[in-house]
Design brief:
heterodimer; A: N-terminal domain of TfIIb; 4-stranded antiparallel β-sheet; 4 helices; 27% helix; globular; B: alpha+beta; Alpha-Beta Plaits; Jelly Rolls; 4 domains; cytoplasm (chain A); Trm112-like (chain A)
């Protein structure tokens, strides 16, 4: 699972859960897959991402120093930060780990790089 | 030819013959005989490489040897014949071995005497009782009456409906009502100017006097003219179109008609001037057809088989319009019975929806994932076009992404996929695509975060209208204002403007008029009967739905569609589908608040909609 995907995931479908975001991420095994850096792509994508989950992911991925806690303005001038965001969002591949619902503690396992967000019928 | 070349040719034949004999020994445990026998294996040529029974018989006849039985084996490059006497067998052997070029591209036949014919002979359709309800009255009319009838139907074509152009294989003329081959039905509101000729009236009086069937007055006549080599694929006369019985009068020549039900096969010789009465089981539950051949194989009084060249034959089929639903006891081929989903079934589907989807969708896709994925590689052009209609850097969610074939389609998008099937997710993840597992009824995705959403061939697997709507509501929820969604579902109607979808076009046997959808349905029913018991029981426990015959028109909206694996076991899995009627998808979208239908269209057997989330 790429951390860009993580940014969109929520547990809000669980019965009684109000926000379900961001999910508490744990990484037990990850891979780094290099991909072509496109600063414009990152810049245009940022408004569609939730910064708190971007920052949260950076902490879990041990890249917290690279990413500021709040989204800086005029990020397009900061090529270095865009490069780091690219690395964080598109080059880190979570192979094993889990995500936890912040409200219920329900665990969503990540196995072989695929998060299992499937809920049982009695959970929805 | 030089001596050396002759030796070479003989050597080559011998080598080839040995190889072929090894094959038939392995395939059907048939051993060769050095001494002449009554049975001959025809090697190197067979049904699989274009040999027809007719070409074989013609070639054998040219040797002066009389053939009494032919055994063509499906998809084999060999076949067998039997002769009544050793002299006949020797004549055929000497005249054909390494001489007859009767296969595709002039492939030569090698012959060998064999000790016996293979055991798995297709059952002999001649030693069977006639199907129930079938009656053949020989010499029903005299030659003089035959001549009068031919004269009566040979009227100016302007009065009758002629469909010579649309039917490649025979000349057809209608009286009373036109039989419409597109719908396999008649339009009761559109009688033809020309009713059944009065010259036919004596037939009903004669039929009455036989006391065989009650008073029967037909109001529709179809005249078929068959030249030698022409036939009619196996079919049942549409139940809802005509009542019981159906009469067929043979004029000018004999022909062999084949009746089939599942694997049951009965040949019936229809002699010239005979009347065939199809009623009950034979009218409703069996298909009948005539093989397109120049030569018929017939039984001899002695009990063996012989051949007879066909001549031009005219058949008069007399029927009476039903004007309403069919009430027969034979559901298998009944269009009335097959085209309506009873309310009870819809209710049962809704009750068992999630269990049914689990067993007949999710589990099946997991089992067939690899094979399924191998068959899904080319993106559909109109889906690709939709994906390219987004500005660069948009976020795409593919709901039910399968093997992920659309995720890399537009590399300028951030594409994320999800699916229920772990097996298919494994395929797309292995290709480096970003995917997660979920149900399309609960997307674990932030609201209003996605620019574009596609769901291709997914929600037709949901077993109730509420659930299909719920899936659309979820897509609408995750779209941001101004975001657009594209949904494809399978259409019940696989034709548009009388053009078949590619799904139907791939039914080669039907398209080449070698068979009919009805015959394929019967065959499938037979296969299902032979399915393993546990799978049978599972079906019984589940909602009992009809099993769709692949590459044929859908009969009902809620069906099981078989998937046959390509491995050795050839296991059949049944996937649940709800195929959509026209406008059904649009109606569903109209129930989703906050989205506007932008476009709806029909694409190769699918109904498709593009909707947009409103901006406020």
């Amino acid at each position: 699972m790429k951390l860009s995907t993580y940014n969109f995931l929520t547990s809000m479908a669980i019965k009684g859960v109000k926000v379900g975001y961001p999910l508490k991420l744990t990484i037990s095994k990850k891979d780094v897959v290099e991909s072509e850096f496109n600063p414009v792509f990152i810049e245009r994508l940022l408004p569609k991402l939730d910064w708190s989950a971007v920052y949260g992911a950076a902490q879990v991925a041990e890249l917290a120093e690279d990413i500021p806690a709040t989204q800086p303005e005029n990020i397009s001038d900061d090529e270095q930060l865009l490069q780091r965001l690219h690395h964080l969002l598109f080059e880190i591949d979570v192979l094993e780990g889990q995500m936890e619902c912040p409200e219920t503690g329900r665990i969503f396992p990540i196995t072989d790089g695929i998060p299992n967000m499937l809920l049982n019928e009695d959970e929805v | 030819m030089h001596v050396e070349q002759k030796v070479n040719k003989a050597k080559k034949a011998e080598k080839k013959q040995r190889r072929c004999l090894a094959i038939i020994k392995a395939d059907c445990n048939v051993a060769p005989s050095d001494a002449p026998t009554l049975n001959l294996a025809i090697l190197n040529v067979g049904l699989s490489n274009g040999l027809t029974e007719e070409a074989l018989l013609t070639s054998a006849a040219a040797t002066g040897g009389q053939v009494s039985q032919v055994l063509m084996l499906p998809s084999k490059s060999y076949c067998f014949i039997s002769c009544a006497t050793l002299t006949d067998a020797q004549r055929v052997f000497e005249g054909m071995h390494n001489v007859a070029t009767i296969g595709q591209l002039g492939a030569v036949a090698y012959l060998s005497y064999v000790l016996q014919l293979p055991r798995e002979i297709e059952e002999n359709g001649w030693q069977k009782p006639l199907p129930n309800g079938l009656l053949l009255l020989c010499n029903f009319i005299t030659e003089a009456e035959e001549a009068l009838l031919l004269q009566a139907i040979a009227i100016d074509d302007a009065g009758a409906a002629c469909t010579e152009d649309t039917l490649k294989h025979r000349h057809v003329k209608h009286f009373g009502y036109e039989f419409l081959y597109g719908s396999n039905n008649v339009d009761a509101a559109q009688p033809l100017e020309q009713p059944i000729p009065a010259a036919c009236d004596f037939l009903w009086q004669r039929l009455d006097s036989t006391k065989i069937s009650g008073t029967f007055l037909p109001d529709q006549l179809t005249v078929n003219e068959y030249e030698p080599g022409q036939g009619i694929p196996p079919h049942v006369d549409t139940h809802s179109a005509f009542v019981d019985p159906i009469l067929s009068l043979s004029l000018q020549a004999d022909v062999v008609m084949d009746f089939r039900r599942g694997i049951e096969l009965v040949h019936v010789l229809l002699p010239r001037r005979s009347l065939l009465i199809m009623s009950g089981e034979s009218r409703y539950d069996w298909t009948h057809g005539i093989k397109p051949k120049h030569i018929d194989v017939l039984p001899t009084p002695a009990g063996s088989l012989t051949t007879q060249a066909r001549n031009k034959r005219t058949s008069l089929t007399f029927r009476r319009l039903r004007r309403g639903a069919c009430d027969c006891q034979y559901p298998m081929l009944c269009d009335t019975r097959q085209t309506t989903t009873p309310h009870a079934v819809t209710d049962k589907l809704a009750t068992h929806a999630s269990h049914l989807e689990q067993q007949n969708v999710h589990e099946v896709y997991d089992k067939i994932a690899d094979h399924f994925s191998d068959t899904r590689h080319t993106p559909w052009p109109q889906v690709a076009e939709f994906l390219h209609s987004f500005e660069a850097y948009s976020v795409l969610l593919d709901v039910g992404c399968g093997n992920g074939k659309y995720l890399g389609c537009n590399p300028q998008l951030l594409s994320i996929g999800c699916d229920r099937s772990q097996g298919l997710l494994g395929v797309s993840n292995g290709r480096g695509q970003s995917v997660f597992r979920c149900d399309c009824l609960q997307l674990p995705v932030r609201s209003a975060s996605i620019d574009g959403c596609i769901s291709i061939a997914v929600i037709h697997h949901l077993a109730s209208s509420d659930r299909r709507l719920a899936a659309l509501l979820e897509m609408a929820r995750v779209l941001r204002p101004g975001g657009r969604g594209l949904v494809y579902v399978w259409a019940k109607d696989q034709r548009k403007n009388d053009k078949k979808s590619s799904y139907l076009r791939q039914n080669k046997a039907v398209n080449k008029q070698h068979t009919t959808e009805q015959a394929q349905r019967q065959k499938l029913a037979q296969q299902l009967e032979n399915m393993e018991m546990d799978q049978q029981q599972q079906l019984q426990m589940q909602v009992p739905l009809p099993v769709h015959t692949n590459r044929t028109e859908f009969q009902q909206q809620d069906v099981y569609v078989p998937w046959k694996t390509k491995d050795k076991q050839r296991t059949t899995f049944l996937r649940y589908y709800h195929v959509f009627e026209e406008q059904e998808l649009e109606r569903l979208v109209s129930q989703v608040e906050g989205v506007v239908l932008r476009r709806s269209y029909y694409d190769q057997g699918n109904h498709c909609v593009i909707f947009e989330k409103s901006s406020n």
